[in-house]
Amino acid sequence: MLLLNVTSAQIGVHNFGLTEKTIAIYPDADVYAFNDYSRPQLKFDISAIPPGSNIISAKLWLYRFAADRWDGDITIYRVDDQLWSENITASEFNTQTLTNGENNASKFMAHGWDNINVLNQLKVDRDAGHAYVSLRLAWKGDDREEPSVGIDDNRFLVIASKLDNLSIFLNSKEFDGNGPYLEVTYTLLYAVSASISPSESSGPPGGLLDYTVVVKNIGTGQDNYALTVSDNSGWGPTLDNVVLGPIPVGENMATKLHVNIPNLPGTTDTITVTAISQADNTVRDNASCIAQALTAPPPQPPPPSPPAPKDNTPPSTPSLISPTNGANMTDNTPFFDWSDVNDPSGVTYDLSIARDAGFVSTALLKNSITASTYVLIPAEALVAGKYYWRVRAVDGAGNVGSWSENWSFTVSSTLPSPPAPKDNTPPSTPSLISPTNGANMIDNTPFFDWSDVSDSSGVTYDLSIARDAGFVSTALLKNSITASTYVLIPAEALIAGKYYWRVRAVDGAGNVGSWSENWSFTVSPTPTPPESVEVILITVILLILVAIIAAIALYLRKCHIDGQRRRILRRKAHLSKYDELLFSL
Question: For the chain, what is the largest distance between any 2 Cα atoms, rounded to a whole number of angstroms?
């Protein structure tokens, strides 16, 4: 790896800095395969690019040595194989997987250096955590169907087509001085945080104070940090280490800060430690602490109080309350109650239940009961028969009181039915109905429908809508839907785009069923509604105009008819009766 260029610029606050670097990486292997077509291939070790860096440029530089009828059209591919070497066979070369093909025009049209952008191919291997990136070059017209028959790893990398009588010779890594290389430009964020604990300490004159200095790498690249120390009173503080590192991203290292207190009672000193990035000395952070010389010896703690006299008095005896003496019951997990006992040190109780009055055949002995009641749990249930019970108190000093009197009770053979077994069976999976798979719609609050799921404990549904088939980008998750349909409310309206949806059932016992299959639908942009007010206004105006024109036409027709009638009457006035008779006929 050859360092070509380094530029640095500080951004933000003083403890952050963004550094841009450009490096050259030379190939570990380069060959070309030949037959009717010749295709070169190069392999680069990219482990020198620091973790956490942002790659902004990647160029493959090659030197043109000679060419014949070369047209400048090159296709660059990424090779998926990480393990190939210059001993690769033609058969192995032909079976390698190629991805991320990109065409480049007008490349290597003149003798000398030219480059191809390989940023996309490099990022695939970098993002996958691979140690290498491999690149294959081919003429754009190469049909990739013609298998190679041989491999050459000599002085040149050849791109050629025998059928088209076209070729170019590029220097290989074995050619002195002008071999190929990969130029990578990336940025690293260098950042540091410093802290000191304790923030303040004091001691007698002539004493020694110790502090812990912690330096943390909060950038995106591994770094070393130089430490400096200063103070405002000249007490001469010192550090165990003046350089910490290398510190990986997100990790921290610590060192000790020592302060010798001078013979100056009542004085103070402020000490500052600065951590400076060795990758970018504009990136730094500091922390301060205070040291104080006491004016008098610190006060001594008072002597401990003498121990209190030991409590040897046992607590009093409780009185039994329930079950009453001689009681009969069907409950095989009865409730026991007795009187409270008080003691300054606190009290717990021991409950003893036996099958005989002498308490030889013990059915249950329960110690350290904190209340003056107890209910048997199912695991302590009693079989049918006669029992005796008693209680005693134990105080906080460990003194054990006397047993109470013995009371008896009988559990009959008629016992309550055991609880029903717990429902652990999840409900079945619903089938999707609407929107149909692949549906297109303009309604952004669609109606969702799926098949009913039945369960004796009752069923609710969960509806999930996402922007991706993996349901990572969730648009809506609606739980506890009681029906097998749902309509989005306006607050849940979807924006235009493609969506995926699924449903699952949850029964009344809390068992969650499996998600249904995923169906997709697309919400198209809502068409712009017409300007309804303008349309109505124009329509009204047109109707008014039509009515006016019709009225004018009717008026003119009436005037014309009236005129004809007047002319006829004038003529009749001049006719003879004979003519009038003829006219009437």
Answer: 164
